[in-house]
Amino acid sequence: MHQDAPLSQRANAIAAALRARGVAPCTTALILGTGLGSVVDMLDDPLVVRYEDVHGMPRSTAPGHAGQFVHGRLGDHKVLAMQGRFHPYEGWKGQEILLPVCALRRLGIENLLITNASGALNPAYKPGDIVLIEDHLNLTGSNPLVGRNDDAIGVRFPDLSQVYWPPFLALAKSVAARLGYALPSGIYAGVLGPSLETPAERRLLRMTGADLVGMSTVYEVIAAAHCGMKVLALAAVTNMALGTPSARADSIEEVLANAQAASLPMSRLLASLVAEIESANDAQRLPPSG
Q1: In 22-107, where does DSSP find H-type helix?
Q2: Which CATH number fits the domain that encloses residue 176?
Q3: What is the pTM (predicted TM-score) of this model?
């Protein structure tokens, strides 16, 4: 399908291609960040569909991103995971990042759980920590909704006042406490990248109230709100980003190693959250979004 086709048509085509490959209806999806794709190892009866085999899908080129859909059962519930995402720094435009999220909605997804690897602006965090994102600052310089709006996808001016859905925030705190995990909450600053921030930029970000910094997530969250999904986002702290004179150089190797250290508790937390969300939905205990 031509790239100038309406977004809803392109999203429908991706959803139809996934159905044709055996992806069954489900209500919860995961977008897994750098080095955090191991949650798919917990899925029973996994069905893998590579992005490159779905016409119209972008391609993941970032390190630590497998670039595939994985559909399976997490406990008693079917979920669909995106093992790998798309970043503006790879050259993808906002609507190309919007497209896969819209396709998820076309598959019946109502709940979107997002993970990322983040630098810690807050000195109370340490590498390997998991942080619950309660709000964000979009400092990328753009927005995935720039351009022609497709009313079949969502409204022109979606409200973001509760984009990180409050019942999910409360649920995540409760589940983490039951598992014995500390789960601080914080504000995420999304920047363009791909260069890491200068010390002065990191100090400025901290002054704005941000606790975390990274190069993803904000576009997906905006896209999910545009499509009418409920969102929860978790960050794995992979490096300190304090902007102090004594700070040592960051490396992708360190980021991947610390993401790996966080992957097991992240996977356990996500598995419990999915079970709670699906059970609550079945019992209609959670209010609708919006």
Answers
A1: 94-106
A2: 3.40.50.1580
A3: 0.93
